Amino acid sequence: MSRSVYICLFGLLLSSCGNITKTSSKKNKFAGSLSELNLKLDVEKRTLSNGMKVLISENHKLPIFSLYTYYDVGGRYEYEGTTGSTHFLEHMLFKKTKNNPAGTFSKFIESNGGNSNAYTTFDNTVYYENVPSYTIEKIINLEAERMANLELEPEAFEKERKVVLEERKMRYENSPRGQIYQSMMKTMFKGTPYGGSVIGEEKDVQNLSREKMMDFYKDFYAPNNAIMVIVGDVKADAVVDYLEAKLGKIPANENLDALKKKLDRKERYISKAKLPVVKKVHGQSATPMFTLSFPSIGVGTEDGYALDFLSSILGTGTSSYLTQTFVMNRKPKLTSIYAANYTLKNSGVFFIQGQLLDKVSLTKFRRSLMKSLKKACHIAVTPRNVQKTKNILLVGYYSGIQTNAGLASFLGSNEFFYGDYKKYEEELAIYNSMTVEKVKAACNKYLNPKKSAFISVWKKHSKKHRK
Fold this sequence. Notes:
- With 467 residues, the chain is of the alpha+beta class.
- The protein has two domains: 44-268, Cytochrome Bc1 Complex, Chain A, domain 1 (2-Layer Sandwich); 274-458, Cytochrome Bc1 Complex, Chain A, domain 1.
- The protein is built from 17 helices and 13 strands.
- The strands form three sheets. The chain has a six-stranded mixed beta sheet, sandwiched between helices.
- The two termini are 28 Å apart.
């Protein structure tokens, strides 16, 4: 799966978390290759009596810790008429529970100098806190309370519905970038659980009842559907004992496996998209904004990792192929451009996005882009660019886990998507062994013009085309 990339000095691997080890055969010589680094993570993995997975990594450098809770529920488990349920429910998890008034969670964390938030994706919902280590028991109590005892107060429910609808307008209707993203997802994943937005269709959010949301909560907010990751100044054995006492007594959902098996049927993810397609969307963009997308592949595959390399080669940084061709050129056509490989649990999309300069013909640019991509597999994918990308991706891989929060997110994502946080060992091996031939093969296989969607958003497009 794609990961955020940060350019940083190699030495940071030695200066932060005590649970990350660097080994080298030569003490005073800068490593010539990232493959010489040996990443070892000290992690305790336990399973509570009710099936809840727990990962703990101790780091006593500072008296703080991060706690991430992953629930296996996202937009992909919704269906027609219930879209947006997961995201709406995420908002409600910060409201009143049986034993705590609304606002208890946030007030406690803020009063102790911490921070917390949550996010919902197509594949999961994640809640996280970064707090002082002395709050560990209270935080666990709060997490247990909202896992088991949510109360959907009518007044708070209706108030939050308005908040969600306003968020939808801000992110999609009033945002050219949001419009083009939503249009891409609907086009590429037509007829599948990924073919929309996580926030949901407006009519579904408007019509969602408290009863349906409570059913959704009872189905998916169960301990055997959760992974809790704790990284920082804690004692693993003591924390596990406390988790068992507080969270371990929450009953598992015995019907969960059957429900998820039904909702995760492979046929639900077969796109009905008719490609190729060129689509125009009316929006507020002063000059045309575009995205060119291709069907890709889900997380954890060799092709997916090769496409990560390809996206970086094509569109990461000023020296990337597409930036040099269309932005840094003597006669530039774009203000910016980038490429991304967006991998989901059961599918994926590779896309290129950018914005045209004023008076540049959209039609002529599209033809020029297609011609450039036809050459890219041979011209851009060189040994030098593959090695450069390998360094960028691997440095980003390491630098992303230098904080408690970064490591907790890293461990949780791996455990969620692959069923084993140790997947990083295989990923690193794949990154280190990536070749020009593998990237070229992926480029030729997936960047097929006959299976593409070119979507543009512009204020001069007809108002008849708003989606």
